[in-house]
Design a protein that fits this description.
Helix 5 (about 115-130) packs antiparallel against helix 6. This protein has a domain at about 15-175. The protein is built from 7 helices and 2 strands; from the N terminus they run αααααααββ. The two termini are about 55 Å apart. By secondary structure, it is mainly α. It is elongated and about 85 Å long. It is about 60% helix and about 5% strand.
């Protein structure tokens, strides 16, 4: 697997782009709903409108571009850098170090759910660097350093928790895949069994396969007719096979 590629099978880039577009829509709605709330600095309307227009353009790009035609890392880098840049501009026009929108960087970290641990930590590191950009143009105060430290810790702690969730989900999916495979094998065995019984013949290898898929030391397979009368009884001992 190449670096900066999602851990899910190829062809997932378009679905990831849809998720990213929904995150953009959520961000636009959140900023629009909180625009009239009190802020540490006065937020000008024109920069926010321009930024909203850029976000809408990004949504259109995410929906229209056939991302599956490119390498997986192309979408990863594009979304990471474009999303972080737009959020940095949002933080800049809403107060810089005094902005309340820097927490939205965590949306990009949530997007790292699709990746392995190395990519998740890399995304968290890039997002943390972008969240510290306001120090380049705003005079910091002592409490800003503390808030940035807490925010950075929040990013990496959230990444670790998200990694735990992905491990749990992957483990459950693996168990379900194994169970589904066993059920398919058992279904194929029982289907062949019914076909052979219609011909009044049961193959010994089929019985061996049936015995392996039944977790008991001794089993009985009973076949009943429409009147619930037993027609066939199959005994499946572990050491030998005796058909009665």
């Amino acid at each position: 697997m190449s670096i900066l590629s999602p851990r899910i099978a190829p062809g997932i880039n378009v679905a990831m782009a849809r998720v990213a577009a929904r995150f953009y829509i959520f961000t636009i709605l959140l900023v629009a709903c909180t625009f009239f709330l009190p802020h540490p600095v006065v937020i000008r309307t024109l920069p926010l409108l321009v930024l909203g227009l850029l976000a809408v353009i990004m949504i259109i790009i995410l929906y229209l571009v056939p991302w599956d035609r490119f390498e997986p890392r192309v979408f990863t880098v594009f979304h990471l850098l474009s999303g972080s840049t737009l959020l940095s501009i949002l933080v800049a026009v809403s107060g810089g170090l005094n902005s309340s929108y820097d927490v939205l960087f965590f949306l990009i970290i949530l997007f790292s759910y699709f990746y392995n641990l190395a990519e998740m930590l890399g995304i968290a590191a890039v997002v943390t660097v972008f969240s510290l950009v306001p120090y380049l143009y705003s005079p910091p105060e002592p409490h800003h350093y503390a808030m940035s430290a807490v925010l950075s810790l929040f990013f990496f702690l959230g990444t670790y928790l998200l990694y735990g969730v992905t491990r749990f989900v992957l483990k459950r999916n693996r168990i379900l895949e194994d169970l589904n495979r066993e059920l398919q094998e058992l279904y194929s065995i029982t289907s062949a069994l019914f076909k052979d019984m219609k011909k009044d013949a049961v193959i010994e290898t089929l019985a061996e396969g049936l015995k392996d898929h039944l977790p008991t030391t001794y089993c009985l397979v009973l076949l009943l007719d429409d009147k619930l009368n037993m027609t066939v009884r199959i005994a499946c001992p572990v050491r030998s096979l005796n058909w009665e």
